[in-house]
Amino acid sequence: MIGGSPDRPTNVRWGVFALACGMSFLLYLHRYTWNIVGPKLQEEYGFSNTQAGLLFSLFYYTYALGQIPSGVVVDRFGPHRFLSAIVVLWSLSLAALGQTAMLWLLGAWRLVFGAAQAGCYPALTKVTRSWFPAGRRTVLQGWIATTFGRGGGALSPILLGTLLMGGLGLSWETSLIILGGLGLAYGLVFFVTFRNSPDEHPGVNERERALIGEGSTGSGPKSRAVLPAGRTFRSRSMRFFVLQQFLDAGSDVVFVSLIGTYFLRARGFDIAQTGWLASLPLWGGALGGIAGGWLNDRLIAATGSRRWSRSGVGFVGKLIGCVMLALVVRQPGGVAAAWVLMVAKFFSDWSQPTVWGTCTDLGGRFSATVFSVINTAGTLGGVVMPLVFGVVLDAFTTGTGPDVISTDWGPLFVMLSAMYLGSGLCWLLIDCTRSLDVEEKPTALDPESI
Questions:
Q1: 3-class SS of residue 168
Q2: Domain co-membership, 214 together with 240
Q3: Residue 450 lies in a domain
Q4: Is the pLDDT of residue 435 over 50?
Q5: Does 2 reside within a domain?
Q6: How far apart are CA 240 and CA 429, in angstroms?
Q7: How confident is the prediction for the chain on average, in pLDDT?
Q8: What CA–CA distance (Å, rounded) separates 11 from 8?
Q9: Integer Cα distance of 419 and 106 in angstroms
Q10: Where do the Major facilitator superfamily (MFS) profile domain residues begin and end (predicted)?
């Protein structure tokens, strides 16, 4: 809105909001194509389960390694060129998966894909801090990260499998090229229209700049520096935040890797039924993100306590999710179990805007770096816990190989429930008001340095 009335704020920030939502949507739309691509690779090239599993896991290694460097780069140079470049890179690597049958080259593209996607959410955290007032920031972060992210993941198998491959009769290789082309186009649009801050955008007037700056603290987006590592890990809140995210994301990986298997094998549904049942938790998470962001901002405004509003939403969501997961295996029917899982994910994911909000509160001008540290912890949970879950399921499986009789999923859901509870308890020990965007002078009485 260039040239608007000087007495009214322009609305450029809402265009930025749309760009951020689109980036988050594409991130998960492309990431969740593996639900279709993985089985197709096994079917067409004869890859074993071990080979397919290796290809899947390679994403997480570079995704974890790329988190902190990406956050440092974004805090130092801004998200504009960074986000434009990485969406192009991950889109190219996605399309390239369908252009080779060599295992090593497929693995290389998966590594590139993970490295490119690693910095997206740290950068979007920086975007929300630079472009939105503190009083509205958390609810908008919920829409960007949880609603549009989960929505992209839920629609990925529908767009790839049902529409492009099923409806239009395209091969999976051609379909990936189309989805990759969509990402390339989006990268160009983002590069042309986005700017790092309101001060850099010619369409923002002084009223909108003042509106965006309401309630902000710290040095602001103009001050570019690197967060000292020592300051990060001397913070007790950061240490519990890291543990919280490990437990949260480590349990969340079940909704990507095992829920389909649960409905197919434990509940006896076919592929078509499993598709919509397995998508219900993601839709629950998308709705939870909206509710959690709104609740954060309302509680902060009503109570005046940012610290306990954040911690309270995180704790209550995880506690209710904990109870719901414990009830899953007690449901007599698979459809009822799916709805219980949807409720569990709703309350679990209403804490996702709390994660983003806490990153911006703790990080200040270092918000991208703080988010990258937290996301690294979550990614490590995503790497480690699937191995643990596999051991648990094998330990409670009767028979082996073709003679498998049944698997008791109860212990797995008890473990997941305990992880949710641990995540919730961590929230009670995280004080988001102890910002890292200050010059620390720790003393023996400072609880954050204990």
A1: coil
A2: no
A3: no
A4: yes
A5: no
A6: 7
A7: 82
A8: 9
A9: 34
A10: 16-434
